[in-house]
Design goal:
With about 375 residues, chain A is an alpha+beta fold. Chain A is built from ten helices and 15 strands. Chain B is built from 19 helices and 15 strands. The chains are: A alpha+beta (about 375), B alpha/beta (about 525).
Chain lengths: ~375, ~525
């Protein structure tokens, strides 16, 4: 057993990625990297470009360094799978490709392959420990249809949510509707429509709905309530947040409300802690802990609810939330470095993937006979 | 070496290093074209009596140093101080240590080192050190010439990667060129398409071979359906080369005008170079407000290709934007489609709408999205300054047509009895027509404004001459009302002009900032 702990581990901050939330992820990644550098940790920046290439970057860059694309200071690296896998420099004409030493990767990729399980799968196969959800939990959290099913099955309140396809002639509940991408992290691509026909028309027109769409009733009386949850070192919950719309005209909390014009979600307008009836707050807290268990949360997740002030519904889970939801931990206050330390400690102690070949002892092969005989 | 010799060599080395930073920055601003640095050095050192005297002292010092080593100190002092006005750190454009600049700097240092070795071998330390200090711009040009082939090789590898990525992602490509209006049009197209297709636009300044290859490699993510590429050209054949690997489906020409005339020679050759973009595309969008482009549209159609004619005024075009009661109105095939937000540029919007239609965006979607068109910063935006006066900002990329439009905007927006001021360093890169175009602009200013603030020396003579002829002649063409009382103010730098404006304008007045030259121009 190595003597690694959260203060001695070499931490790679992984951010960017081929995702609509690439830019938001850069903000999260740079905040995390800056915080770790400030605590004298050994930090490597690993930037995943929009076109899927990997680069090592200094952890002290500014957002502006990414304005034109890959920053000047970036050096290309590769992610290799298998034994001896991990991040390594791209071999030059002279010399070998030296590995980039990484003990734990802090995953800051939102909305796309960093939050849907695909990056997680690659890191598992490469033997790199990482923070946040494992592949299966990430994939579940990214699929709004499957997630709603799991939550409803556990008896928690959710709004009706149906798959919407071009041939669907009936939704099953009356409009108006919210049409959302089935897979996708934030509010990008969300439309409010009056009727089914318009909803189906949006499938073709809205590029975010190409991979599938879900439809639910639009309830203008509902507002968002968010809470962050983690299970390490023990299950704990943040304060409950009520995000506020920057403009009255917006029908739903939009992407621009959340992310444009500041340091990501940490500077969006909000009421924190939200002023709520105790019954609602208690309901949200116990539901959040139950969802953390149901979806196998790792790291920190933000669970979004909808409420009219009396009743409430589970909306969705963000398994790699913007700014890692650091701004929600106000009561009791939790410093960002302490949140990160807990995530890094969990990544070192709780593997995401335990492949096992036990049981594959050759018995099946011995009794198999010829393959041709099996085909016959 | 004597003590005097050692001191001289040391001083000249420091001066050489400082001059290196200055002229490497100019090389970067001038696209690393060999020869441009020496040309700018001549401009700077001939800028005024002080500069000329300094240059003479530096040269004399280098000559004298053959006999008296300490003479080289004069050279060192002048070269270290540099031409007055050309700072070490840029105001508009700081030195960026890109890989290309690092390569260039290394080669330049190599040349300097070779000269030092030569000096040591021949024993002529002080005079050689002084000559190197004087010759820094020439050595930077030489380094540009030597690194050129290597850079082209590097770009070739970027391009082959870009070609491969384009093949894999297979987006519909909209290519936009034009002497002006490219960047706005690109932004408009991206905005119109974004509601119904995943779209990526090339970043602002990435409009040449290396830049577009980089834009593809770094921004063309998997799943991108439309790629909007801005194509610039500094010479014939460049756009044809771009289109050989970044093959456009829809090509757009926004305008032709005397931009980069000094590299092309004539406007006919500019037109030919822009027309290269139409060769490969399945459909062409051409702004026919310019008769030469109208003729090009006819020729292209006669060759059997699909052409969409657009206009910022003419209702007969396929897509047009016209000024109607109190605002801009978009027409497609003669029918009114939507009203445009104030500040949208008619010709460019028309180009973008036609391109979006060619990409397959439904007309209703376009009508919905034109209402929220982004208006780019520094493209004739209006605001109110701290002194309560109106500020028209047209500081980005001025050309004669744009400058004329800005003056008309000044006229229409000026409150009654406002004092009207135009601040400008004039326009550059107009080749043999530069003096003439600037003089003509100053004459037009005389008919619209009360004060002309001339910034810097680059176009000072032409602007003042133009203003004088207009005021002296009394009748300036163009139909404006000539007050005949234009006052001219001459300042060295932009910040002095801003201070002058703050001191002299009050509430109800108006100022137009027309063009801003990068600070490597004298």
């Amino acid at each position: 057993m190595s003597a690694l702990d959260t203060t001695t581990a070499t931490v790679a901050v992984v951010f960017g990625g081929p995702s609509p939330e690439h830019d938001v992820s850069i903000l999260t990644g740079l905040q995390v990297a800056r915080t770790l550098v400030g605590a004298d940790r050994d930090v490597v920046g690993l930037y995943w470009s929009k076109t899927g290439e990997w680069f090592r970057v200094p952890p002290t860059l500014e957002a502006a360094d990414f304005l034109d694309g890959v920053p000047r200071q970036a050096e290309p690296v590769r992610l290799a799978l298998g034994t001896g896998g991990g991040f390594a420099e791209v071999a030059g004409r002279l010399g070998r490709a030296r590995p980039v030493a990484v003990d734990v990767a802090v995953n800051c990729c939102h909305g796309g392959p960093g939050e849907d399980g695909s990056l997680q799968g690659a890191l598992d196969l490469a033997g790199v420990s990482y923070t946040g959800p494992g592949a299966a939990a990430a994939a579940l959290g990214m699929d709004k249809l499957a997630f709603a099913g799991v939550v409803a099955d556990a008896g928690l309140p959710v709004l009706p949510r149906r798959l919407l396809g071009p041939a669907d002639t009936e939704v099953g509940f009356p409009g108006p509707y919210i049409v959302k991408p089935r897979f996708g992290g934030s509010s990008l691509g969300i439309d409010v429509v009056e009727d089914r026909a318009t909803a189906v028309a949006r499938l073709d027109a809205n590029p975010h709905l190409r991979r599938g769409a879900v439809v639910e009733p639009y309830r203008p009386d509902l507002y968002d309530l968010n809470i962050a949850v983690r299970v390490w070192p023990e299950p704990s919950l943040s304060a409950i947040e009520r995000p506020l719309r920057s403009t009255d005209s917006g029908e739903i909390l939009g992407y621009a409300d959340k992310y444009v014009g500041g340091e990501g979600m940490a500077s969006a307008p909000r009421q924190l802690p939200a002023d709520l009836p105790e019954a609602v707050a208690a309901g949200l807290r116990s539901a959040a802990l139950e969802i953390a268990r149901l979806t196998d949360i790792r790291g920190v997740a933000r669970i979004d609810f909808l409420s009219d002030g009396a009743g409430w519904f589970v909306n969705e889970v963000n398994t790699v939330p913007g700014s890692l939801a650091r701004y929600l931990w106000v009561d009791p206050p939790l410093a960002f470095i302490d949140l990160l330390d807990a995530m890094i400690g969990e990544a070192l102690a709780r593997p995401t993937w335990r492949p096992s070949a036990s049981g594959a002892d050759g018995a099946v092969l011995r009794s198999a006979g010829g393959i041709a005989a099996k085909l016959g | 070496m004597t003590i005097a010799g050692t001191v001289t060599v040391a001083a000249c080395s420091v001066a050489t290093a400082l001059a290196g930073i200055r002229w490497l920055r100019v090389a970067q601003r001038e696209h690393y074209i060999a020869g441009s640095v020496s040309r700018f050095a001549l401009r700077w050192w001939r800028r005024g009596p002080g500069s000329v005297a300094g240059a003479a002292a530096a040269l004399a010092g280098a000559v004298v140093a053959w006999r008296w080593p300490l003479g080289g100190l004069a050279t060192a002092v002048v070269v270290a101080a540099g031409p007055p006005g050309l700072g070490l750190r840029g105001r508009t454009s700081a030195l960026a240590w890109t890989r290309r600049l690092r390569t260039l700097a290394a080669v330049w240092v190599g040349f300097v080192a070779a000269a030092v070795v030569l000096a040591a071998v021949t024993g002529a330390g002080p005079p050689v050190a002084a000559a190197v200090a004087v010759g820094v711009p020439v050595l930077v040009d030489l380094a540009c010439a030597v690194t050129g082939p290597f850079e082209r090789l590097m770009v070739r590898s970027y391009v082959s990667r870009a070609r491969e990525r384009l093949g894999r992602v297979a987006p519909t490509v909209v290519a936009i060129t034009g002497s002006y209006g490219k960047t706005s049009t690109k932004g408009y197209v991206a905005h119109l398409v974004a509601g119904s297709r995943t779209v990526v636009a090339s970043p602002a300044s990435f409009n040449n071979r290396a830049g577009l290859a980089r834009a593809v490699n770094e921004n063309l993510a998997e799943g991108t359906e439309v790629f909007v590429a801005e194509m610039g050209t500094y010479g014939p054949g460049e756009i044809a080369e771009l289109c050989s690997w970044l093959i456009p489906d829809v090509s757009v020409i926004t305008a032709v005008g005397p931009v980069h005339l000094e590299r092309f020679g004539s406007e006919e050759r500019i037109l030919e170079a822009k027309a290269e973009i139409l060769e490969a595309a399945r459909s062409a969008v051409v702004n026919v407000d310019d008769p030469r482009l109208a003729a090009l549209a006819d020729r292209t159609e006669a060759e059997g290709r699909r052409v969409r004619r657009v206009s910022g005024s003419d209702a007969g075009a396929d897509v047009s934007v016209r000024t109607g009661d109190g605002g801009l109105i978009l027409f497609v095939d003669g029918a009114e489609v939507a009203r445009l937000p104030p500040g949208a540029q008619p010709g460019n919007v028309a180009c973008a709408v036609a391109a979006a239609l060619e990409v397959g965006v439904p007309l209703e979607e376009i009508a919905r999205r034109v209402a929220t068109l982004p208006t780019a910063p520094h493209r004739l935006t209006a605001g109110t300054g701290t002194g309560g006066f109106l500020v028209l900002d047209d500081t980005y990329n001025a050309n004669p047509a744009g400058a004329g439009a800005a003056l008309r905007a000044l006229e229409s927006m000026a409150p009654p009895s406002a004092r009207r001021v135009v601040v400008t360093p004039g326009m550059v890169e107009l080749g043999p027509r530069q003096a003439e175009e600037n003089a003509r602009f100053a004459a037009a200013v005389a008919t619209t404004a009360d004060d002309l603030v001339v910034v810097g020396r680059t176009n000072r003579r032409a602007l003042l001459a133009g203003a004088r002829t207009a005021v002296g002649g009394g009748t300036a063409g163009g139909g404006g009302t000539s007050g005949g009382t234009l006052r001219c103010v001459v300042v060295g730098r932009r910040d002095q002009a801003v201070a002058w404006v703050r001191d002299h304008l009050g509430a109800g007045d108006i100022v137009l900032y027309e063009n801003d030259l990068p600070d490597h121009y004298p």
